[in-house]
Amino acid sequence: MLIQLAPATSATATVEPSATMQSNYSNQLEPAGLLRHFLNHPPEGFHAFMSDEVPGFFASFDLLSTADAPLQNVVTRIPGSTLVRRLLRWRTCFFGSTVSEYIPLLGHASADTLIGSMLKAWNRRSMLMIVKDIPEQSPLLPSQDTARATDFLAACKCLGFIIVEGQALAYVPIDFASEEEYLGRLSYVRRKNIRRKLRVRSRLRIETLSTGDARLSDPALLDELYALYLEVYEQSEIHFDRLSAAFFRAVFQDSSLDGQLFLYYSNDDLIGYNLCFIYANMLIDKYVGFRYPAAREHNLYFVSWMENLTFARARGLTNYVAGWTDPEIKSYLGARFTFTRHAVFVRNRFLRFVLRRMSKYFESDRTWFDGHANDSSHETTTGS
After folding, report:
1. Contact, 99 vs 35, CB < 8 A?
2. How far apart are CA 262 and CA 11, in angstroms?
3. How far apart are the first and last CA of the chain?
4. pLDDT tens column, 17-64
5. Do 60 and 92 touch, CB atoms closer than 8 A?
6. In angstroms, rounded to a whole number, what is the distance separating the alpha carbons of residues 66 and 165?
């Protein structure tokens, strides 16, 4: 059954998570309430829905957004490249969400049942259907979830889906007793550079608020936090899911999420924040907002990384999950990585044939890791 939601601005677009949504998903690394807020307040241009309790959305998708640099450069040099880019932007049906690390799958349903339901909900109403972020032997999940994801991926292959390597999810096991022990595992050059960058910590004031805190009802603070999120969004290379102010307001004010908002001040000026969630005894890093150039001048990326590790260690958590994007800098900071895969179904048979043979050009994270597999200056451990 396909349940279409009203636009996020409508007063009727309120979705409460069912018992299934709250407790019976596999592959879940975040509170179910975050999915509820995604459905009620989808990113700009998204049309979110639920199909038999599995979240999904329709959106315009630039096929080159995940292409590797050489392919992007080839397209850029083509006469009329702007038109080519426009032609390669297709309306796409996604299953999953942009607020969950992995595709949430119903724990009681078979792989064939789930895929059949997704295909029926899609009903070939867009050029592409993508089941996104299927975990690949993730060390962050229970073994039964890993087994279900493997079965699900195999079923997708049997039904003619093209399997594409996804992004690398960064994480750090909290198996060290102090910051010094953690840094001691890195190379001398990296240790020295990171310690130099961390000297600015003494000039910062760091404050932590829990989601649902009364201060997060202040419209001025909410506006400032959203503006900092937009600064990061605008400077990023990929512009896909621009989350709304309404989404952040709902998340910041939801005490059930067990969210931790780390606020960074220089004097009395808020120059950045990091929003994380405690889930399954892990610290899940989701959103940042930075004020430029002050955030760079204060090495806020490095500082917030170490503060998150300190918080996770103090709480006795097992892992710090640092999210997607920027694998180079996260590797430099000592992260390990686990990969995902996407299952893609192309409506047109000829385009399906073409994409199947070009899929390797859309696996930039895996390409980067393969190229650094023997580089001792990077932590490229996957799935361990």
Report:
1. yes
2. 31
3. 38
4. 444 455 578 899 999 999 999 999 999 999 999 887 789 999 998 766
5. yes
6. 10
